[in-house]
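hiii, so i know i said id send this last week but things got crazy w the move. better late than never?? heres the sequnce for the chain we talked about at the cafe, plus the structure i predicted for it. fair warning i was half asleep when i ran it
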Amino acid sequence: MIPKIASKVIYGTAWKKEQTTALVVAAVLKGFRAIDTACQPKHYREDLVGEALTILQDKHGIKREDLWLQTKYAHQPEQLKPL
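okay and structure toks below
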């Protein structure tokens, strides 16, 4: 089931760097159901948020559709990786 509205409190993933996966898993296991991220590699690791989602589903039975994911796009060329 996809949450209809975001949680009142959203877990932010900025500046977590290599700890992003473990911290997102821990936050969800503690009760967070909303996660904030962005496609800005200077401050965020969306790939590691994805790893956390895989762990949460495979090891803890928490499906992606049970979580609210919020992302952003900032058009600042110096902060974007080319596709």
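btw Residues 53 and 59 are 10 Å apart (CA to CA). thought thatd interest u
miss u guys!!
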